[in-house]
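[scheduler] slot 2 assigned
[scheduler] job type: sequence-to-structure, two independent chains
[scheduler] chain ordering preserved from manifest
[runner] begin chain α
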Amino acid sequence: MKYIKKKFFIEGIKVRNLAKKFRTPIYCYSYKRLKENINNFKKNFKNLKPIICFAVKANANLKILKEINKFGLGADVVSLGELEKVLKAGIQPKKIVFSGVGKTSEELSFAIDKKILLINTESRSEILEIERIAKRKKRIVNIGIRLNPNTDAKTISQISTGKKQDKFGVTEKYFLELVKYVKNSQYIKLKCISVHIGSQILNHQPYLKMLKVVDRVIKKTNYKFEFIDLGGGMGIPYGKKIKSLNYKRYSSTIKKTLKKHKAKIIFEPGRSIIGNTAILVSKVIYIKKGINKNFVIIDSAMNDLMRPALYGVEHQIIPESKNNNFTKKTYDFVGPICESTDTFLTSKKFQKLYEKDLIIISDVGAYGMSLSSNYNVRPKPAEILIKGRKINIIKKRQKLKDLI
């Protein structure tokens, strides 16, 4: 994705042509970037030989999941719907991990029938429910227990999952009690210690703290775990000045800390695989003059891209065509929805824009379409995947008549 003669291209296709053909707003994915991300992840963690389970909550597009499956990745799912989708995408059950604090009896029963790799449990009640279902079905079920390591990931508060006040996992003391209980179960086989401390992590230090806790707890259990599931959470730079997570440093830290346990490592990356593969192409509807700034009202809204409204985060916005004529006024990029939180970015230095110009919201592949909604009875955008000069429609634009 780059500018060629001041026009923005995604692989071999001019974005302006895509907008003309498919209308805006539209999600556009780069296959080349997806391939690079997966190969880069594999390369940096090669010495660990991990099982890589893509976190489906980041992007659940069926065609994307099929492409990910071709690269040999498994899946981390958090609902029955996600589980059914990854199975439809061709991902093998023995590469699927089921996470989440509130799995229903229906979801657990389905997962048990499909003989997936692991159900990562998060409470005694859930373990008892699995035991009850397994007994009825006369099955032995492989589970993990999720530990809450009380580790601050130093990330956005809304996506922190590893501190003691978070709803995820169990305390160290409780974990040890559950291990003792499961050891004696007829229908459950404890295979894994699982942990996940949050998302959009760009520094390996929180991971180091987490690994030390995992190491200590494993020693206390005196139990041989077949798997250590380290979750995901690897972040991506949403701005030019932000540095990426150093995979190699994290990989060497894992090897140094956990090699004595001789367990297979599981990763659950989502954002780091899919986040920077996509852009959201939008059109300027109106430019509304304000006292200290101008509001650039675009046809994308918080229902199309929820992250800025939900987390207060910023995605870089760039023009589709460069003109090198910068405005003196601050631009506030906002959507048309009747909410003050329907805003994307405030820029003090942006080229001069005109109504009907196209703009590009960057790095929307993760938690873009997966968090989208029909708020204000707005149809969801189309999604397209670009492979070189080939355009693949991977999700049609919703029609208003279908919503009504």
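[runner] end chain α
[runner] begin chain β
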Amino acid sequence: MINYRGNKLSVENKYVLKIAKNNQTPFYLYSAKAIKDNFEQFCRVFKKINPLICFSVKSNSNPKILRILKGLGAGADVVSGGELLKVLNAGISPKKIVFSGVGKSTDELKMAIKRKILLINAESYSEIALINKLSKSSKRKTSIGLRLNPDIDAKTLGKISTGRAVDKFGLSRKKLIEVCKNLKEFKHIELNSLSVHIGSQILSDIPFKKTLKVIEEIIRKTKTHFKFIDLGGGFGISYSSKEKRIKLNNYSNLVNKFKKKYNCNIIFEPGRAIIGNTGILVSKIQYIKNSISKSFVIIDAGMNDFMRPALYGAYHSIVPLIKSKSQSMKNLEFVGPICETSCKFSSYKKYYKIKEEDYVAILDVGAYGSVLSSNYNTKPLPAEILIDKNHVKIIRKRQSLSEIIKN
């Protein structure tokens, strides 16, 4: 869906350069078809299991995109009250919503309890006690899951690892077993799920296989039948030619056997795997500044628009909207305008011939792109544009400076 037609970058057969000349840069540009194709492919891989697929809203919370996913049958994995309200407004059923996160506030829990969502995934004994107290005040029972920290290193970036003992998420095996044995004291809690999420951008199925073994251990030791096993997300995509996209067929077979053995329903929470490669960030080259060892290509997109490289050291390819025949330029570093040394993107030893006022696209920014954008340096939030069935639609207007200043 996002490829070159001749030497021109296109999204769903629309030339990106034409869109760039009609909209102020930087802006996010998504392919609706790519989103649908990714979701349907994920469903096909896990078809035998028939899981509830709860899209990870923290990866991209644009309402239009949420409505597309709702139309495909997706549920939602939310981590804040704001995300919960967004998915409800998008029409996603409360019975397809799970609420995760280590620090849910009292107000957020009240909101989730009132809406009778499928699961609140509790991450501490104190949180369980608070859910019970709030549910008692509301004179109802609340469906919860317990989030397990399996102490498994998913071998991903340290800042997006969530399943090691040193990470803040979930209950240790010992603590979770203890909680299961003492849940009878909570009269307004209904334990329906065991939940686990070990990190993001995972490119091997080995950590997932290890996690299944730990879950089996928990089930044996607690003698608990869980209606749902929430296996989280974290499935990686290829950000460069060096990264191979995770192969999920073997994992699907293992989960299918697990499901039959324990007579449970499976929940997955993919985000990046659905949305990651469906979007680009289009930017204009402001200046090309030569230094002793390299040339800085200064674009109008900054770390305020796209945070991942500065926050995680994440790599994203940058391509020109019009590709020249040869890579004649050497030692380029793409950087942004923000007054921070960390406002930089990718470096290249060889690159296509480009000049000031040309346009480029940062690839694979559909996940953790727009949601992490900010007004740092008093910069406006970028627009988001969707190509859907040959139509180019603005799904979030570019913020104006007057909107920022009046606040």
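[runner] end chain β
[qc] chain β: Residues 32-274 form a domain with the TIM Barrel fold (CATH 3.20.20.10).
[scheduler] slot 2 released
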